[in-house]
Amino acid sequence: GNSVTQMEGPVTLSEEAFLTINCTYTATGYPSLFWYVQYPGEGLQLLLKATKADDKGSNKGFEATYRKETTSFHLEKGSVQVSDSAVYFCALSWQEYGNKLVFGAGTILRVKS
Amino acid sequence: KAGVTQTPRYLIKTRGQQVTLSCSPISGHRSVSWYQQTPGQGLQFLFEYFSETQRNKGNFPGRFSGRQFSNSRSEMNVSTLELGDSALYLCASSFGIGGAPDTQYFGPGTRLTVL
Known about the structure:
The complex is a heterodimer of chains A (113) and B (115).
Chain A: E1 3-6, E2 11-14, E3 19-21, E4 23-26, E5 32-38, E6 44-50, E7 56-59, E8 62-65, E9 75-77, E10 86-93, E11 102-103, E12 107-112
Parallel strand pairs in A: 2-12
Antiparallel strand pairs in A: 1-4, 3-9, 5-6, 5-10, 7-8, 8-9, 10-11, 10-12
Chain B: E1 5-7, E2 10-13, E3 19-24, E4 31-38, E5 42-50, E6 53-57, E7 64-68, E8 74-78, E9 87-94, E10 105-106, E11 110-114
Parallel strand pairs in B: 2-11
Antiparallel strand pairs in B: 1-3, 3-8, 4-5, 4-9, 5-6, 7-8, 9-10, 9-11
């Protein structure tokens, strides 16, 4: 079935380091891909999305490119801040199932000053 | 514009009881989805409602049910609570129309603890 696999965390980085969180998916058809972020004690916030192959989503310095050939949607940021410490979720949805989101397990990011 | 609101934020119940959680979507949004988040199972889709009709359903037992009102507000109900139902329950809303999957906006969640 359709699924999302994320790199396991926690990922611990120093401030201003480069971030990559890997995400790969298995899906039939052409899913839409999302990154959500969850700060402690809060719900999920949409970080970025891409709806077709080669689309690049970007927001707040984060970027991810929809790579159909490698079924990947890796999240990157050039210079992380302490305030980026959170849990990051990769997710997909597809037209046949309306708004149902399938999430990866989440990756904890810790940024040290 | 106000975001998705969920009430209550915290709940403590005992096994065997039932509970009702409420979600008010963003104004203009007609689709409401519910998710369960636990450390062991992660984020799992419960169901989606659109225009008062259940449009999609996840793999949860019949003890989990929901409904949507004409103003798009939604409630979910869990009957005969079990310890394993302890979780953060998240509600998400979106416009819900059109052919492509919609961007969903999440509320802060209701933390349910079953003792």
